[in-house]
Write a structure and sequence with these properties.
The structure holds 2 protein chains of 2 kinds. By secondary structure, chain A is mainly beta. Helix content of chain A is 12%, strand content 42%. The longest helix of chain A is centred in the N-terminal third of the chain and has 13 residues. The N and C termini of chain A lie far apart (63 Å). Classes of the chains: A mainly beta, B mainly alpha. At the A-B interface, helix 6 of A face helix 1 and helix 4 of B.
């Protein structure tokens, strides 16, 4: 269902003609109202009608694409159908989510959340920024999804088999991140780079020691596809200057093995407006140029594996800055000005950067970068000794795009699309002759944008979603906190056509990726009854029908329970005050969508039991009394009867 | 002024703002500070004129009478006021040969003008349905 060809041009023409022609010549809809009447009554234009036809997906039919969007402060990931823009799911990641039973007693989810402890403490929110779908040979493969939490420098792994979070890791070297998550072309590594510099060892350092003690970092988290987990023991980090590293991208094709990070605050401004110092917003944007970081991650991997000069800092393997300089792992390229995006073209030959306060995109040639490195065509070195490649020697082109260019995506037809924050627009331009083609206004203050597979080796383009920060007047007012506005744009037509506004009333999403729906192959039920989603394998503690029982060992009570429409077995659980209670509960269901919940009143427990799922719930019975437990999903006609009692004897 | 013209004007704002990729020549520190200060003040002055013209265009397009756009007009004026104060402080510091302060205040003035310009663009877009 591409925008073109979804419905034949003849049909589109006919419907539009009907809309314009009036009731006499119009076909009648099911309620006896013609298309023309509806269009007139609702004040819809021809463009409105074509937009509706391009986005409407009738009941029972599926979208052509699926978009994974960061959920911003919600700490979640949103799954949205494209072009319908229907919200399909909100995947719980950094924040507990009761419907999915995430963080309310289910053992696997509690273990996942435990991986995200920050300095040993629970931090139950996240500022998700950049989702990254796993890739094979530079194209989305639809197997895994990664997402970061800027606020706490965490990364998470989501399986796209069951759309559930499997792992969460906190990077102890970073205060916050921004260049995360991005993957290398075969998902060898998940890239996470810091944003605001801090001492890497976690110690205190006065701001006056900024240049000496504060540092940036980029971590290459090793992904073990077989295990479906990041392996911290095979991951490494490069120490970076205390500029504020920004977005990242991995090279591909000819630039395979390299990574590129934008940065700002090359001034190393330290703020302190309250003391009469220059505020960050001016101090960190004073220079005409900041630095694109060019990193040879494959060479860094070899250094890490050799162990030469590698330091252990807070349990992480860190390649110090001087080693990176000596071994040629890190170079800087001047980039104007307060840059944000760093996006590699589909063929891997160019890196597109855009400065928030510059109206150009600056396009750097990877081949020229390699030549400059080989010939040591350096304009200078920074104060840390990192070579700065000569700007003119590595620049391929600069394209005048407009005000506030941020991020760039691509289609498969030789075009780039860049968001223009200040102009509230998307500009389409050619990556073949570096010329601007057209602009479309968006509403308002666009941040990221996502084209269908638009950051891969073979983009589809077709649809583009503008992730607008402000909606101002687009939606029914709901108080001072406005929804964000995702605007769907058809980029197959000229001029580009705005199709649909989707309010996002949860969190403040940043980036999104759009994958062809047929690349996803999720389970509809778990592969077998008694399956552990956390371990992605049969659960040895699962409970088969007929094996339900309650066992006591000292003050530990193990309850082996099954759930099926419409009862739990056992229904009576008797324990004593102070007992440790472990309820192993298995859903015996194998029918699609036959999900149960397991909620214990007043014990803050709610588990989602999807068909075949096995979970364990562990708690201390610390309050005597009678506590009903029940199925919290409306599972069947006798759903309300799916209940039991927990008796806690004093 | 049409949205297209407006967009061109806003683009010109940046061009005149001297944001193109240029480096600062290496000179004596004092001369560098003075050059930076002059550069920021020039950018701020140029940007001021263009932002004011963008805002005037928005007002001409009916933004002040528009229930939603008028908020953006007010926001733009607020930032213009901030920018005026910062620019005046920059020029005062320049006269006193305090070039670092002049550069910093000129930079801040320019940042405020960018905010004012952003609001003015929004005002125009909302008022004209662009």
């Amino acid at each position: 269902m591409k925008p073109k060809g979804m419905i034949s041009g003849v049909v589109v023409f006919a419907v539009v003609a009907l809309a314009i022609a009036g009731p006499q010549s119009c076909a009648r809809g099911p309620a006896g109202t013609s298309v023309g009447d509806l269009a007139r009554e609702r004040g819809l234009s021809e463009a409105d009608i074509t937009a509706a036809l391009k986005t409407y997906v009738p009941t029972g039919q599926m979208d052509e694409y699926v978009m994974f969007s960061s959920g911003g402060h919600s700490g979640q990931v949103f799954v949205i159908g494209v072009p319908s823009m229907r919200l399909l799911k909100s995947i719980a990641v950094f924040t507990p989510e009761p419907w999915q039973g995430y963080g309310y007693g289910a053992g696997g989810t509690m273990e996942t959340l435990e991986g995200g402890l920050v300095n040993g403490k629970e931090v139950l929110w996240g500022d998700t920024h950049h989702p990254a779908i796993s890739e094979t040979d530079g194209d989305y493969d639809g197997e895994f999804l990664f997402i970061d939490d800027k606020a706490n420098a965490r990364v998470a792994v989501i399986s796209l088999k069951d759309f559930e979070t499997k792992q969460m890791l906190t990077n102890p070297l970073m205060g916050s991140d921004h260049g995360a998550t991005f993957v290398t072309p075969n998902t060898e590594y998940v890239i996470q780079s810091s944003q605001y510099a801090v001492p890497l060892d976690g110690s205190y350092a006065d701001i006056s020691e900024y240049q000496e003690r504060y540092r940036g970092a980029v971590t290459f988290w090793k992904f073990d596809r077989g295990a479906g987990r990041i392996d911290p023991a095979r991951s490494f980090t490069l120490e970076l200057p205390p500029y504020w590293q920004d977005l990242a991208d991995a090279g591909k094709g000819p630039s395979m093995g390299w990574a590129f990070l934008g940065s700002f605050n090359s001034e190393m401004a330290t703020g302190g407006v309250e003391s009469g110092n220059v505020p960050f917003e001016a101090g960190a944007s004073a220079n005409d140029m900041d630095y694109l970081h060019v990193i040879n991650w494959q060479a860094a991997e070899r250094i890490y594996q050799s162990g030469a000069g590698v330091q252990q800092i807070q349990g992480m393997s860190v390649i110090p800055l001087d080693v990176s300089i000596r071994e040629g792992l890190l170079y800087l390229v001047p980039e104007p000005k307060s840059p944000h995006g760093a996006d590699v073209t589909p063929d891997g030959r160019f890196i597109v950067t855009a400065g928030k306060l510059d109206q150009h995109a600056s396009i750097f040639s990877f081949e020229k970068i390699q030549n400059a490195i080989a010939s040591e065509t350096f304009s200078s070195r920074d104060v840390f000794g990192v070579p700065i490649l000569d700007f003119d020697a590595v620049l391929e082109a600069q394209v005048l795009l407009g005000l506030g260019p941020l991020h760039t995506q691509f289609d498969g037809r030789g075009h780039a699309y860049t968001s223009l924050f200040i102009e509230s627009a998307v500009v389409k331009w050619s990556i073949e002759d570096w010329t601007v083609k057209e602009k479309i206004g968006v509403h308002y203050n666009i941040g990221h944008l996502a084209a269908a597979e638009g950051d891969t080796r073979s983009p589809d383009g077709n649809y583009l979603v503008a992730l607008n920060k402000w909606s101002i007047d687009r939606f029914q007012p709901v108080g001072p906190l406005h929804p964000q506005n995702f605007q769907l744009i058809d980029v197959t037509v000229e001029p580009m056509q705005l199709l649909y506004d989707m309010p996002i009333g949860v969190g403040e999403p940043h980036y999104a990726q759009i994958i062809k729906a047929d690349k996803l192959d999720p389970w509809l039920v778990y592969p077998e009854v008694g399956f552990s989603p956390h371990n992605m394998a049969a659960d040895p503690n699962s409970v088969a029908s007929g094996e339900e029982r309650i066992e006591r060992s000292g003050n530990t009570v193990d309850v082996h329970m099954t759930a099926i429409r419409s009862h739990f077995n056992p229904e009576h659980i008797k324990v004593r005050l102070g007992d440790r209670v472990r309820i192993h509960v298995t859903s015996l269901e194998s029918a699609r969508d036959a999900t149960h919940g397991f909620a214990i009143d007043k014990y803050n427990i709610n588990v989602s039991l999807e068909p075949g799922e096995s979970e364990v719930v562990e708690f201390v019975a610390d309050r005597a009394g009678v506590y009903p437990f029940y199925c919290s999903e409306f599972c069947s006609a006798l759903h309300l009867e799916m209940v039991g009692y927990l008796f806690v004897e004093p | 002024m049409s949205i297209k013209q407006l967009t061109l004007s806003v683009a010109a704002l940046a061009v005149l703002g001297g944001l193109a990729a240029t480096g600062v020549p290496a000179q004596q520190e004092q001369d560098e500070d003075k050059a930076k200060a002059e550069n920021w003040i020039t950018q701020a002055d140029s940007t001021k004129a263009l932002v004011e013209s963008v805002l005037a265009s928005a007002v001409e397009a009916g933004a002040e009478e528009h229930a939603v756009a008028k908020d953006q007009v007010n926001d733009a004026r607020h930032w213009l006021g901030e920018a005026e104060r910062a620019l005046a402080a920059a020029k005062e510091a320049m006269a006193a040969e305090d070039y670092q302060r002049a550069a910093n205040m000129g930079n801040m003035a320019w940042q405020y003008y960018v905010k004012a310009g952003t609001a003015a663009v929004l005002a125009s877009k909302i008022a004209t349905g662009g």
